[in-house]
Amino acid sequence: MINPYVDLPPRAFWKPAVASRNLFDLDDVWRSKFDLRNTDRIVTFGSCFAQHIGRALAARGFDWFNAEPGPRGLSPESLKRFNYNIFSARTANIYTTSLLRQWVGWATGEVSQSNEEWEQDGRFYDPFRPAIEPGGFASKEEMRASRDRTLSAFKTCISEANYFVFTLGLTESWVNAKTGDEYPMCPGTTAGVFDRKRHRFINHDFLGALQNLEQTMEAMRIINPGIRFILTVSPVPLTATQSGNHIMTATMESKSILRAVAGQLARTRTDTDYFPSYELISSPVTKAIFFQPNQRDVNPHGVDFVMDKFFKGLGQSAKNKERAKSLKTISSSPTKPLVAIHDDVVCEEELLEAFGEKA
Amino acid sequence: MNAVNICFLGSSYIGAVYSAYRGKVESGEKAWSIDFYGHSNGGFSNVDIINGHISNVRFKSNESRPVNAYDALVIYADLPSPHDVLKATASASQAGCSQQVVGQVASDLIRSSNAFRLAQAFRSQTGKPVLMLSGNVVSVTNTKMDDLRLFEILDLFYANLDEHIYVPFPRHMFDHVNRPLKEFYKDSILLTGDRAGADAAGHDNHHMNERGGREILTAVEQCLEQLFVCRTQAA
Questions:
Q1: DSSP E strands: which ranges in chain B?
Q2: Out of A72, A78, A137, whose CB is closest to B98?
Q3: Chain B residues 107-146 with a CB less than 8 Å from chain A
Q4: Which of chain A's residues have a Cβ under 8 Å away from the Cβ of B105?
Q5: Chain A residues with beta carbon closer than 8 angstroms to that of B101
Q6: What are the pLDDT digits (tens) for B180-221?
Q7: Which of A18, B7, B95, B192 is the most buried (most CB within 10 A)?
Q8: How does DSSP assign A40-81, residue by residue?
């Protein structure tokens, strides 16, 4: 009897593709929609996990584009401390689809920038990048000038990139109740003062997250009609939740929404692909072996596992293998990420952990 | 004064200083007891203190002594020049970096030199003072800097060298915009203290002559005099 399952390849069946295989023999997990070449200009933004993608791309000889490199003379440690060369511009983490929308709106000038600043002990903090400058800026003007430069670099990324790789991280965030401006971190955690009347919690549902991301992508396409998107979902669980749910439940709900949003866009848009970082780390198939003992941070083997599947899916793995061998540590050129591939990632959200220690 | 033993360590720039010192000793002038150790600039990054001795040097003026036999260390090697720091900080400022980042650029530049690493090692192993000079100052002929800016940059050296003592080049070795005067580097001297021959073409553009070496030696000696007189008084 003929049925549509007869001609399917082994990758379509659980037993040959998963159950009968060693985890490390998992193969053909992802096939890129795009023929991504070493000469294509790629930018990376998003949550903490996005940092691994930028580093791996640079290490494999891809053209990871850095529109806001650190100044010459700054040591690798200082570059990391001042958040240079982490993402393709000095945006810091962009956790939500609405925060990405805000960055794009500000960069294109379609939306007016916030005038808000946080002052503490004579130093000024950018509410939208509160940890970007350890110890804060010397003045409000310096803070604003720094953000302007980042917005300009971010716009350059949009206009010059062939591929925009975005790692979706969270659905939960905080906004200014009056202006609607979204903060990457709750005021009062890394900097600023929390005020229940001025600060409002939001938790995006599927439709909200989808609309935000799709409208953002359209806005980017106005600047650069040829831009393509590779979406992925960070496998890193939430550090804390304001949803009222248990942190595990809140994490699964957030990640499920983001995964569905990314999948929906990849299915319906020819300019968008989805890469399964989330599944490769969080699926029961991997038995949580790619997490650190805190069951949250991804260990170096997990990062390697994910990135190996990424490059295999691009068909680039063999071609670039030799090159990667000689690039265990990434070049100290200011246009490349300066930290070793497995070095700690810069993740502001982890700072929330300190507030749960009393428990 | 002669009971104080000085270790003078550096790159090929020390040749001019050694030549001046040798001339001073030979002419019977009063001089400090100084042992010179050096390696050309390309290899200076390998110079180290291993098992209590200066190691991986190409030139020694005397038999090697353990570092704790010295009362002070003078390093004249790869510490950046005020001109280098000015260029790096100006570039960071023009790129729109914050004041904090610009300051960090200067700090990282100064502290990333092998000279600074050796100074830290010597200080931690012996507890003795370290005097530091910037390296290739005489080759910087295209960077102009007014005196106010020079003092600001010198402040960065004082702030970033921890307890080590920075010895600035004498002001009269520079013109009114702080470019080195050619009279101090024409007919320059090699690492070994000998005059560069025709086989070292271009050497003059980067190294001092004996006259320049004498200026540096005098600046160091004046600093040592203050240091050890102060110490004697304190004792």
A1: 5-10, 33-38, 48-50, 53-55, 59-60, 72-76, 130-133, 165-166
A2: A137
A3: 108-109, 112
A4: 71-74, 78
A5: 71, 74, 82, 133
A6: 888 887 777 777 777 766 555 556 667 888 899 999 999 999
A7: B7
A8: SEEEEEESTTHHHHHHHHHHTT-EE--SSPPPTT--HHHHHH
